[in-house]
Fold this sequence. Notes:
Helix content: 10-25%
Largest sheet: 8 strands, antiparallel
Structural class: mainly beta
Amino acid sequence: MIPVLCTHVKALSLPRLEDALLADDWALPGCLVWDYWRSHKVRDFTAEPWHWATPPDPSKSRTVSGTRKVSMVMPVPPQPMCPPETRVTVSYDVGLAHDEHGKDILHVKSSAVSHDASGFRIGVGDGRCCLGGTVFGGQAELEIGTAC
């Protein structure tokens, strides 16, 4: 991963973030994905069921990997010959693992497609984003990077 940002975030609970991302229902406050898209004023947000490569197993370590798609309708910035909104599908690849030092690492990769308009930037861009971190006595160290 190429680090873009590494900082301590006192209010961030990595386990709570992990739980929200691995949940079946993403359309709830506190889920990073839903909070992000809600801030972009989307409507008709729907998350498809998980497709697990490594399903969650509470009796084992928290190493999981899965994909899911979400669909929504989002506003489009005013541009000639563009509709006021577009249908968008975003594919997410979420993984939780441990690095060689035992730190929890949460990877979130996304790819978005606009179905009704082109030539504008969808909020997630066309790249990949990775979140990583560990908890130190209630404080989280967060690293955001690209090229996971």
